[in-house]
């Protein structure tokens, strides 16, 4: 490994300020597409300082690797390496420089979309950039040890989407699951991260829920934030091989839900997973133009957005119990387990045939409420940051 050069980013901050002021003036000159009424309702976006982030590994056409990270002092380090060992190991911390763990690069490939049910199946959802909440939950249930290493043997951890947005440790959580995946495989276990709706949102340039520090970093680098996650990046390649649907034993996992239209299309799980990956890095417009299938999959009745399994309002197109059973029969499962829609605690629907595991992780951690689902044989347990809380009864 040889480092070619490191770019100082001191001058970039000054340039950013000038550009920021200029863009404000331009906006005032040419106006905005948003109505004045919307402007009054919206809160001004708070500019955040850069905090520890990365690394972002961008692989260049000539085989070199551009390494971008923000250190704990908020300094941007932009380094080009002529080579990088395939098993290179590096340190990652949260945005405050804490919760450190080592990551070793490894080959990425699409996981299988159907697995046997292990002795223990642990299910969580929507970590949304809050590494402290992830670590607290997994440590409290012995999924990882105090060194943040895999400690779950041959068992299975499922994360039902949405690492991106709202929090300050998006990149770090991706690296965390990336490295846990390899550690689990070596132990005979498994980590499955499924795509949510926020991953493709950000990759398509929709950053309405993204902390401003990420856009600020991209601006200092003279690029857009999605470029840091493109198909030529290490984490981009990893995301592109994540499944959207996965069956484990008699359970089917998907971020949001499966609609009547989904059933009527008769879709094979592998086709869904492949199509989602093929169009992951496209814009919203490009996804619609790609095919009617990709337009549907990324639409409101698709698997990463549909709320009709857990919401009864007409606008969500709620699913009838009969159609739900047809879906379960088609995929030879007994239950659908979803995230996406936030509930106060782990919740059940359709007499337990649907389980919603998404909660406000920060709030539920503070209030000591349920944050995940543990399945052991025929037992379904709600767990919090210190383990067991109650059994789910159907």
Descriptive overview:
The protein is α/β, with parallel strands linked by helices and 394 residues long. The chain has 13 helices and 18 strands. The protein has 2 domains: 3-90, no CATH class; 114-391, Purple Acid Phosphatase, chain A, domain 2. The chain has helices at 10-30, 36-41, 131-140, 170-186, 198-203, 212-220, 234-240, 260-265, 269-278, 284-290, 292-297, 321-330, 361-366; strands at 3-7, 53-59, 65-70, 76-81, 89-92, 101-104, 114-115, 121-124, 156-159, 190-193, 245-248, 251-254, 335-338, 347-349, 354-356, 372-376, 379-384, 387-391. A 6-stranded mixed β-sheet has the order 7-11-12-13-15-14. A 6-stranded mixed β-sheet has the order 10-9-8-16-17-18. A 4-stranded antiparallel β-sheet has the order 1-4-3-2. The longest helix is centred in the N-terminal third of the chain and has 21 residues, at 10-30. It starts with a strand and ends with a strand. 40% of the residues are buried.
């Amino acid at each position: 490994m040889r480092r070619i050069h490191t770019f100082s980013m001191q001058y970039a901050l000054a340039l950013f300020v000038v550009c920021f002021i200029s863009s404000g003036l331009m906006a005032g000159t040419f106006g905005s597409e948003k109505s004045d009424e919307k402007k009054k309702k919206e809160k001004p976006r708070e500019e955040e300082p850069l905090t520890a982030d990365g690394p972002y590994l961008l692989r260049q056409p000539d085989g070199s690797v551009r390494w971008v990270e923000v250190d704990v002092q908020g300094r941007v380090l932009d380094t080009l390496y002529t080579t990088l060992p395939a098993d290179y190991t590096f340190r990652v911390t949260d945005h405050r420089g804490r919760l450190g763990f080592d990551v070793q690069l490894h080959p990425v490939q699409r996981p299988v979309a159907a697995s046997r049910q292990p002795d223990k199946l642990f299910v969580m959802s929507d970590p949304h950039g809050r590494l402290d909440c992830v670590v607290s939950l997994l440590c409290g249930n012995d999924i990882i040890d105090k060194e943040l290493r895999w400690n779950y043997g041959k068992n299975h951890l499922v994360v039902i989407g949405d690492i991106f947005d709202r929090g300050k440790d998006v990149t770090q959580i991706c690296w965390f699951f990336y490295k846990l995946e390899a550690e689990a495989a070596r132990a005979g276990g498994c980590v499955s991260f499924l795509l949510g709706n926020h991953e493709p949102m950000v990759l398509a340039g929709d950053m309405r829920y993204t902390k401003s520090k990420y856009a600020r970093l991209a601006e200092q680098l003279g690029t857009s934030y999605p470029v840091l996650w493109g198909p030529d990046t290490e984490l981009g390649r990893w995301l592109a091989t994540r499944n959207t649907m996965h069956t484990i034993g008699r359970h089917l996992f998907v971020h949001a839900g499966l609609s009547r239209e989904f059933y009527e299309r008769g879709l094979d799980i592998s086709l869904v997973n492949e199509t989602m990956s093929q169009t992951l890095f496209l814009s919203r417009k490009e996804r619609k133009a790609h095919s009617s299938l990709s337009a549907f999959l990324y639409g409101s009745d698709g698997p990463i957005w549909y709320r009709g399994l857990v919401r009864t309002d007409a606008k969500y197109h709620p699913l009838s119990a009969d159609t739900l059973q047809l879906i379960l029969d088609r995929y030879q499962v007994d239950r659908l387990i979803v995230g996406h829609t936030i509930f106060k605690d782990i919740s059940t629907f359709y007499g337990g045939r649907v389980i919603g595991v998404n909660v406000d992780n920060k709030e539920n951690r503070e209030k000591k409420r349920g944050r995940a689902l543990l399945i052991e044989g025929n037992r379904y347990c709600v767990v919090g940051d210190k383990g067991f809380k109650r059994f789910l009864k159907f």
